[in-house]
Amino acid sequence: MDTKSQVIPAKKRIALVAHDGKKQAMVSWCQSHLDKLAVHQLYATGTTGNLIEKTSGLAVTKLLSGPMGGDQQIGAKIAENEIHMLIFFWDPLASQPHDPDVKALLRLAAVWNIPVACNETTADMLLSSMMMTTPIERQLPDYEQYLTDRLAL
Hints:
The chain is of the alpha/beta class. The chain contains seven helices and seven strands; from the N terminus they run ββααβαβαβαβαβα. The strands form two sheets. A five-stranded parallel β-sheet has the order 4-3-2-5-6, sandwiched between helices. Strands 1-7 form a two-stranded antiparallel sheet. It starts with a strand and ends with a helix. The active site is at 71 (proton donor/acceptor).
C-alpha cells in the first residue's frame, strides 16, 4: 500500500488509558509530569480521565469507560488522525472482558503509526523526548489512493 506523509504538530493530542489495576499508576505518572502534559491536549477513557482530572487538575476530554466503548472511541480518533500518541497502562496479569477492544486499539495505533507507551518507563521516555514539543513527520497508509485504485477496477 502506498503511504503519505503527515506532520504531527508540536502540541500533541495524547490519549490516556489505564486498566483498573493500573489506574493509580497512571494518576501518579500524570502528577509527576503535570508541566509537560499541560501543554498538550489530553483525552482519556471515562474513569481514567475522571481520576486524572480530579487528582491533577489537568484538563482531560473524557470519553466512555473502556468496557463501555471508550477504547473504541479512542481507536476511531486515531483512525481519524485526531490522536497523536497513546499512553496505555495495561495490566498484562489481569484478564479483561473487553480484551478484543484493547487489541484493536493497539492495532490501530500501529496502523496509523503513532507512538505508544504501555508502561511508565516507556511513557517517561516518550515524554522526555525532544520530539514532544516539535512537529514530527510520520508516514501513514494512503487509504484515499487505495480507495481510488479500487474504484477504478
